[in-house]
Design goal:
Elements: E1 2-6, H1 10-23, E2 28-32, H2 35-44, E3 49-52, H3 59-69, E4 75-79, H4 83-92, E5 97-100, H5 105-116, H6 124-134, H7 142-145, H8 148-158, H9 163-170, H10 174-187, H11 193-203
Parallel strand pairs: 1-2, 1-3, 3-4, 4-5
Length: about 210
């Protein structure tokens, strides 16, 4: 397994690389601190995973560039920035997950495993915050806010399914599924699939209604 860090803190990189070496024996970790170096590396020899510090100068641009030009390479945001304020921004920018540099080794490895497996990751703490946003008294419970198709779409996205897979299962177009997704996010006041997944798990939306 090949992992590319985009970070300007060598000590942090060495510590994270040591944790990864224990969790993934034989993995290779390299680091670069600039967008141009990262772009060259991604073009010539794409890694299995990019771990990006979004707080770098131009970090948002780096994230957008990777997501746009190297969409097959997942990105995990790994940052000292406050999670509640910056994780949603990174997730909306295309990162598959966000983990704090203050997280435990277990949580860091859990985040890496989730993203490598094609799932999205946010910490349990952030998941609780997102769930709390939906816990504000409303005229209807969160489940009742969504139409059956919107709820099915939300469940599938929360489990890591792609829009194309959902469209095929429903027998509708990808554009139609995209509309269901947009409506679900708007009704639940969320901004990304990762936020939707965390909220869905916390609120029990993944299980069909009894």
């Amino acid at each position: 397994m090949d992992i590319l860090f985009i970070d300007d803190q060598p000590i942090v990189f060495r510590g994270a690389a040591a944790v990864l070496a224990e969790g993934f024996p034989g993995c290779s970790c390299t680091v670069t601190g600039t967008l141009s170096e990262a772009e060259t590396r991604l073009t010539l020899n794409p890694p299995d995973l990019v771990i990006l510090e979004p707080g770098l100068a131009g970090g948002d641009e780096m994230l957008r560039g990777i997501v746009t030009r190297h969409s097959r390479v997942p990105v995990l945001a790994f940052s000292l920035l406050p999670e509640q304020a910056h994780a949603p921004r990174a997730l909306r920018g295309g990162a598959r997950g966000f983990v704090s540099k203050g997280a435990s080794e277990k949580d860091f490895l859990d985040a890496v495993r989730a993203v490598l497996a094609g799932r999205r990751y946010v910490s349990p703490g952030l998941g609780n915050v997102l769930a709390a946003r939906l816990a504000v008294p409303r005229p209807q419970p969160a489940r009742a806010l969504l139409s059956p198709r919107e709820l099915d779409t939300a469940r599938a996205l929360a489990r890591g399914a792609r829009l194309t897979d959902i469209a095929r299962a429903m027998g509708v177009s990808v554009k139609t599924v995209g509309t269901y997704r947009a409506r679900a996010l708007a009704k639940l006041h969320l901004g990304s699939n990762a936020e939707l997944g965390a909220a869905a798990r916390a609120l029990g939306l993944l299980a069909p209604a009894p």
